[in-house]
Amino acid sequence: MNSALRVTDLSLDIGGAKILDGISLSVLNNETLGIIGPNGAGKTSLFNLLSAIRKPTRGQIFIGEHDVTDMAPHERANAGIARTFQTSSVFVNLTCLENVRIAAQASNGQSMNLTKNAYKFTEVVAQAHDCLEKVGLASYAMQRAGALSHGDKRRLEIAIVLASNSQIVLLDEPMAGMSVENVPELVEIIRSLATVHKKTVLIVEHHMEVILGLADRIAVLNYGELLVCDTPQNVINNPIVQSAYIGEAL
Predict the structure, then answer these.
(1) Is this prediction's pTM over 0.70?
(2) pLDDT tens, position by position, 157-167
């Protein structure tokens, strides 16, 4: 299978400190790759490089066969990468429909002027409604996003990702702050990104049971280095990983 995303020798130095050092890995089309590691391992820094928030000190980033290393953030997004963050990043003063509609407009190359009447954009409004329905927020379309619960904001972020039509999705700790009872539903929504919507998903998550249930493979980072990238079972049984991160309990 062809790689949807590939990085070679990806490194990041900040103030003389090595944050990431020589990361090389490939993620296949429609694959879900879990990324784990202790605090400070470089997980979010890797996402910052992939989404062009930071530029690498060295190394290359490819989407398919295209070198996107030098692209600006908006160019990287247009090339097919969408991202969520550890903290909710929705427009809290806009409705759920408006949040998703903006992403749909951008993906269709239309104006993102927020002062225009949403109902003039029949096609993108229909697309936005469809994305809200897919994450279980159809009845919240006209509700202000800031009034949503934390769990519903996470679902709204997934709807925005769907509306963007991006092929590659970066999810940075989507379960952070979620109540225990809301986790299973969000897990299934994330699973559908790959199984139903045929996205390539990279997910950083501290909840090991979530990663083990979702990921086709798991990449383990430690002190900015890639220790291993393998199937969940092989990662669990890897003595180097157990020593560095997971521990004997697993």
Answers:
(1) yes
(2) 999 999 999 99
